[in-house]
Design goal:
The protein is of the alpha/beta class. The chain contains 14 helices and 12 strands. It has helices at residues 14-21, 50-58, 87-95, 121-152, 156-173, 185-192, 220-232, 242-248, 253-262, 269-280, 305-312, 314-318, 328-334, 337-342, and strands at residues 3-7, 40-45, 63-64, 67-72, 99-105, 202-207, 237-240, 283-289, 294-300, 320-327, 347-349, 359-365. Strand 6 (202-207), helix 7 and strand 7 form a beta-alpha-beta unit.
Length: 367
């Protein structure tokens, strides 16, 4: 199962957000640095309104959403790359996740300490990125030393790595993250073997105050973060209010709806964050549906039909014959499988079909 790691400076709301995302109280949340030491992890369900709609068509008895894993990692401080604070542990834990969600504080509060004494989310992003880049530079330099010796002996793999390092080192030395360097497909494949922290896909969560969730664009910190991550990192920022999300944990679904409406908000920011993280990990969803259950299955972008079938059971992939397929939008528009079949919207797809997000599938197999 792929994992998204929540990172950030101390006291930016990471652990509060983790508790909200996983709907638990597992992560200790308190107003002092290094409240989280060992990483907490939890399974997160992916909000998807399509499940309920398909369930209505099939009159399903049960709904099963897609899931993936979130990890709450200890707060980082300046100097982490050289072991300051919990730096070495922090960097090791980041290395073990597949994507990074960087939480940045975009709210003012005299009651909650900030390690730098003031709120400046762009500065905070640069502090974290600097430590990750410095760690990556150390990794690259060690690899360069090792592969230089191998390349002298005629090792072609070592030579290819050195060619990549020649492009990567000046990029990192300029303070830029590895995932912003333009590379060929072969170079990207080579870089994966370096296991660099800044090569991981990253998105940002702007943590705003309760009263700002309905109109976050009025918050100058949010605008600064969005502008920065778009231009400097070619990624996105989503808006959350960790405290609101924490308050929602103990409420029923109806009470949550009423509370959000009272704030002028239609949807929880955590739902947006979870979906963004799911897509950031390169994950997509297809559905199976029937009277027994409607279920969301997780696949990777580009997966062919046999691989998608294997998510259900290895026998489905091994004995794959074909998949009966329709797009979610088509099925909902027509209202039933019978009408979709009459309209010729149920297709038979073979082994080379690339499954799309929202496909509704039924597999034919023989083992």
């Amino acid at each position: 199962m792929l994992r998204a790691g929540i990172v950030g400076l101390p006291n930016v709301g990471k652990s509060t957000l983790f508790n909200a995302v996983t709907r638990t109280r597992n992560a200790q949340a308190a107003n002092y640095p290094f409240c989280t030491i060992e990483p907490n992890s939890g399974i997160v369900t992916v909000p998807d309104d399509r499940l309920a709609v398909l369930s209505g068509i099939s009159k399903s008895q049960k709904l099963i959403p897609a899931v993936f894993e979130f990890v709450d990692i200890a707060g980082l401080v300046k100097g982490a790359s050289t072991g300051e604070g919990l730096g070495n542990k922090f960097l090791t834990h980041i290395r073990e996740v597949d994507a990074i969600i960087q939480v940045v504080r975009c709210f003012e509060s005299g009651d909650i300490l900030h390690v730098s004494g003031s709120v400046d989310p762009v500065r905070d992003i640069e502090v974290i990125n600097t430590e990750l880049v410095l760690s990556d530079l150390a990794t690259v330099e060690k690899r360069e030393e090792k592969q230089t010796k191998a390349a002298r002996g005629g090792d072609k793999v070592a030579k290819a790595e050195l060619d990549l390092i020649a492009k990567l080192k000046p990029h990192l030395n300029s303070g830029k993250t590895a995932n912003t360097l333009e590379l060929t497909a072969d170079e990207q494949a080579t870089m994966k073997g370096f296991f660099l922290l800044t090569s991981k896909p990253t998105l940002f969560a702007c943590n705003v105050a309760e009263g700002e969730l309905a109109n976050p664009e009025a918050n100058p910190h949010v605008k600064a973060v969005k502008d920065y991550v778009k231009t400097a990192m070619n990624t996105e920022a989503v808006i959350i209010s960790a405290q609101i999300e924490s308050d929602l944990v103990d409420l029923s679904a109806e009470e949550q709806k009423e509370y959000l409406e009272s704030l002028g908000v239609k949807e929880s920011g955590v739902g947006t964050l979870i979906r963004a993280a799911y897509h950031l990990l390169g994950l997509r969803t297809y559905f199976t549906t029937g009277e027994k259950e409607t279920r969301a299955w997780t696949i990777h972008v580009g997966d062919k039909a046999p691989a998608a079938a294997g998510v259900i059971h290895s026998d489905f992939e091994r004995g794959f014959i074909a998949a009966e397929c329709t797009a979610y939008e088509e099925l909902v528009k027509l209202g039933s499988f019978a009408k979709a079949r009459e309209a010729g919207r149920l297709r038979i797809e073979g082994k080379e079909y690339t499954v799309q997000d929202g496909d509704v599938l039924e597999f034919r197999f023989n083992v």
